[in-house]
Design goal:
It contains 12 helices and 9 strands. The strands form 3 sheets. It has a 4-stranded mixed beta sheet. Strands 1-4-3 form a 3-stranded antiparallel beta sheet. A two-stranded antiparallel sheet has the order 8-9. Strand 5, helix 5 and strand 6 form a beta-alpha-beta unit. Helix 4 crosses helix 6, helix 9 packs across helix 10 and helix 10 crosses helix 11. The radius of gyration is 23 Å and the shape is globular.
Length: 408
């Protein structure tokens, strides 16, 4: 992104983001580097290679082809009159617009490639729920939704999206859209919801699609990214990470009542809690006063907690970022998300404000060097692999603030 583009968007930024941006520019960090060069439609005759993120997920899919671990299930309960024909037409238009949603991943020689299919005739399957008592009906709904979410994809034989509509009653429906992560991410679900709402509304009124044509497709981005990864910018970013993570601890040594397993499992538990609004407001005010974002404040608090538990004053925390460093990628459905490793420095017993300043600088620099796919970074750093724990970091923090992430 150029400075002219930054200036154009400045009015929509919060005060905290503007302060961070100003510091980034004063520090001389190359804000234009990740988005340099327009993404152009690829040569139709050239093989559509996978992006770095897709390559990683495709490899994991080969290890467990029957797994639904990378399914992204979206479930909507629709009350009131439903125009099923308009809904199906809206879904079909989304699949037509976004090539990623009609792409197979097939081997061509020794490497996987994307094979884009023509728009399908139908994209929506319709089921009817049998007439049941109220308590049985809800149980049947849950079973139906779990079955949809848990059905694996054969990426070489079927696109990474399916849509089913369950008719519960005349004015009661459940729409299940299941996506494979190789063609979607959190930002993409926001795009899907917005387009579905716009298209369904237009089609029920007998109007044409209100959505502008897409200038590029995901495979065009993948080709652009591969060209970037073969250039000098990639080498510069790898060198940054090599220096940044040199000597970083291999493990986060957290106290536990269970020994670390020889092979990492998938069992987990979750705990939900709400931050009271007054606390959230105070945290946001503190971040603004320090020229930081709320994410940086929460990341600093997370680092302080991990420091207290582990006793380590040098630790690495992972975080996912949208990975849409180029403006042309913003309206696309596809797999762009990237993982960054934030090395936290808690040496010298800093105050929280001092720690927040360190985290702010670490985060800004990481964002400016986010193009290196994480699996490639692990290979470049020659990190010793272990089946008992993930490489580079074992704790993550994620801020779920994707615009339009759900229906309204």
């Amino acid at each position: 992104m150029s400075i002219d583009e930054i200036a154009h968007r400045r009015e929509s930024l919060s005060a905290a983001k503007q302060a961070v941006l100003a510091r980034l520019l004063r520090a001389g960090i190359r804000t234009d580097a990740p988005g340099a060069g327009a993404i152009r439609p690829r040569d139709p005759g050239a093989p559509a290679l996978l992006s770095g993120a897709q390559q990683r997920l495709w490899f994991l899919h080969q290890l467990e082809p029957g797994s639904a671990a990378f399914n992204i299930p979206l479930l909507l309960r629709l009350h009131g009159p439903l125009d099923v024909a308009a809904l199906e037409r809206a879904l079909a238009e989304i699949v037509r617009r976004h090539e990623a949603l009609r792409t197979l991943f097939v081997l061509r020689g020794a490497a996987p490639v994307q094979q884009v299919l023509p728009p399908p005739g139908r994209v929506l399957s319709i089921d009817d729920l049998p007439s049941l008592a109220a308590d049985e009906r809800e149980a049947a709904l849950r079973a139906w939704a779990e079955k949809e979410a848990g059905a694996p994809f054969d990426l070489a034989a079927q696109p990474g999206v399916r849509a089913r509509l369950l008719r519960v009653a005349a004015n009661d429906h459940v729409l299940a859209v299941t996506l494979h992560h190789i063609v979607s991410d959190g930002w993409s679900t926001g795009v899907l919801y917005r387009e579905l709402a716009a298209l369904y509304g237009a089609f029920t009124r007998g109007e044409p699609s209100p959505l502008p044509p897409l200038a590029i497709q995901y495979a065009d981005y993948a080709a652009w990214q591969r060209a970037r990864l073969a250039g000098e910018e990639h080498a510069r970013q790898v060198e940054y990470w090599r220096a940044r993570l040199a000597g970083a601890p291999v493990l986060l040594d957290l106290p536990t009542d269970r020994p670390r397993p020889a092979v990492l499992g998938t069992g987990a538990a979750s705990r939900r809690f709400r931050i009271p609004r007054p606390l959230h407001e105070r945290l946001s005010a503190l971040a603004r006063a320090q020229g930081a974002t709320p994410f940086m404040a929460v990341a600093a608090a997370w680092a302080a907690l991990l420091h207290r538990w582990s006793g380590q004053d040098d630790l690495v925390v992972g975080t996912p970022v949208a990975g849409r460093t180029h403006p042309q990628t913003e309206p696309l459905i596809g797999f762009f998300v990237q993982t960054l490793a934030l090395r936290m420095d808690l040496s010298g017993d800093p105050s929280f404000r001092a720690l927040l300043g360190r985290v702010r600088q670490t985060t800004v620099e990481a964002y400016a060097h986010q193009e290196v796919p994480f699996d490639q970074l692990v290979d470049e750093l020659k990190v010793e692999r272990s089946l008992s724990h993930p490489p580079v970091f074992q704790a993550m923090i994620a801020l779920q603030n994707a615009s339009g992430a759900g229906p309204e």
